Amino acid sequence: MQQRVGVLIAAGAMVAGAVTAAAPAAAARPTSAPPEPGIPATAPPGPATPAVMAPALGTPAAAAPPAWKACATTSYPRLQCAELSVPLDHDDPLGERITLALSRVPHTAKTFQGPLVVNPGGPGAGGRTMAGFVAASLPAKTAAQYDVIGFDPRGVGASKPALNCKPGYFAPVRPDSVPRDTRDERVNLARAASFARACGEKYGRLLPHISTTAAARDLDAIRQALGARQISYLGYSYGTYLGAVYARLFPDRVRRAVLDSVVDPRGVWYEANLAQDTAFDARHKAFAAWVARHDKAYKLGGDPAEVERRWYAMREALKRRPAGHTVGPAELEDTFLPGGYYNGYWPMLAEAFSAYANERDPAPLVAVYKALATRDASDENGYSVYAAVQCRDARWPKDWGTWYQDNWRTHAKAPFSTWNNAWYNAPCAFWPVEAASRIEVTNDALPPVLLFQATEDAATPFEGAVTARRELRGSRLVVEEDGGNHGVTLAGNACADGHLARYLDTGELPKDGGGQGQADAVCAARAEPEPAGTAARGSRAGTSVATLPATGGAALHGMLGHRG
C-alpha cells in the first residue's frame, strides 16, 4: 500500500491539473512568496513587537454606523442584523467594495464595556448566529455589559459576494481517500486540481483578497463602523489565529481578547494539518476505548484494539459496497471525524457502527452521515473560503513528492484520517494565487490575553496553546485537563466559564503559573457521555443531532463545524 507510486506534478502544469508519473522528487517548497499588499513578511526575531500597520492608498469616506434591523430567531429573539461595505483591497480603499453581514445583541446594562466581537473559526464558518449564542450563554450580568457582535467573514454566508467554487464537489460516493495504487492517486489529484482551477476561473479577482490578513482588516473596519476606540474579542479554533493576527496588526485597538482552542501560529497551515492527523487518530482511539468500555451496549468488543479492527473492517466493506449507495470509505471518515471534535456524538456513531458491524444494517450509518457529514450549499461555501484562506495565508509545498512522503509517513502511525485530510487540503498544491508569507504573531504590545485549551483537543493540539502562551506576553492559559472536545468555554464547563466571565467582567486573570507554557489554571474535563437507552437503540431512534440539547456543548460544536 505504501510503495511509492511515483505521481508527481510539474509546477508549470499545476493549475491545469496535469499529472505525470516520475521518480520521487526531493521535498521542495517555494523559496519565496510575496506578502500581501501592505503587510511585511514574517517579522525578524526581537524583543519588541510594535504594531504592523498597513498603509492605505487614498482616504475613503468615514463608514456610516450600521443600520441595525431585527433578525430574531426562536433561540435568539434579540438578534439584530446589518451590512457593512468594506474595500475588497484594503490598500485601495477607493476601489471595488464588498459587503460584510453583521449581527448584534445590544447591551442592556448601564455599565457598557463596548463591543465584544465573536468568531467561531473555520476559516469559512459563518458567525452571525454566534453573537446570539454567546450573548445567551454568558452569565446575564456579563452579556448585558457588551454589544455582542457577530459577522460572516468576507466570502462567507450572507456576506457578498459569497464563494462556491465547485458545487457538488463532495457528492458521494467519492474516491477512497487512501491511494492504493497509481490510479487512485491520479484520480484524487485530478479532483483537487479541478477544484483549484474552478476557484480561479470563477473568483480570480477575489482570491488574492481572501485571507486572514484581509479578514483582520475587516475586523478593524467593523470596529470603526461601531465607533469604538477598542474592541474585545472572543475567537474559537481558527478564530484564535484571526484574533492573533488582528492583535499583531492593531494591538492598541484590543481591549480584552479570549482565544479558545488555539491554533499553533508556527504551523500555519501545512504543518498544522499534519499535526491534526496524529491528534485525530488519537481521538479515534479514545472513541474506540469508550466503545470497548460500553461493550454491553454496542457488542463491538471489550478491547479497544478489537473495536478499531472492526472499524477498519467496516471501512474495507464499504469500499466494496457503499452503504445505501452513499457512504464509502471517504464518507465514513467524514462521518466519524466530528466525533474527534465532540464526544457528544459518540453514542450515535457507536450505534450506527454497531448496527452495520453486527447486523449488517446500513440505514443508521447513512442517517448519521446525513446528519453530520453531508454537504449542502452552505458547507460548499464554507469549504471554498476555507481553501481560499488557507492556500493564500502561507506557503504550501508545490512538489507533490513532499505531500506524498509526509502523508504516508503520518498515515503509518495515524491512519484514521490522514489521507482524507490530505485531499481536503490538496487544492493548495494547485492554487492559482501565489501564497503570502506567514504572519509572525509574537506580541508584547497587547493587554493580557486569556487562552483556553483542552489537553486532548485534536483540531488544535495542545502545543499551539503553549506556543501562544509564550508568544503573547502577559497572556494566561486555562487548561481543561484530559478534555478532548474542541471548544472549552460556553460548553458546560463551569470552571472554565467562571474564568471567562471574570475576565470579561473585570479583566481578572488567573495568577501566573510560571510561564514557559505551563498552565496558569486547570479545570477538570466534563464527564464522558453515556450510551443511549436500550429502548432507543432497539427502535433505531437512538441519539441523533436532533435530540442533542440546543445549549452548551452540542450548540457550540454545531457552530464551530468539523473542519479547520
UniProtKB/TrEMBL annotation:
Domain Peptidase S33 tripeptidyl aminopeptidase-like C-terminal: 416-513
Keywords: Hydrolase, Signal
One Pfam family linked to the record: Abhydrolase_4
Keyword Signal: yes
Highest taxon above the source species: Bacteria
One GO MF term: hydrolase activity
Family, as annotated: Belongs to the peptidase S33 family.
Protein name: Alpha/beta hydrolase
Organism: Streptomyces lichenis
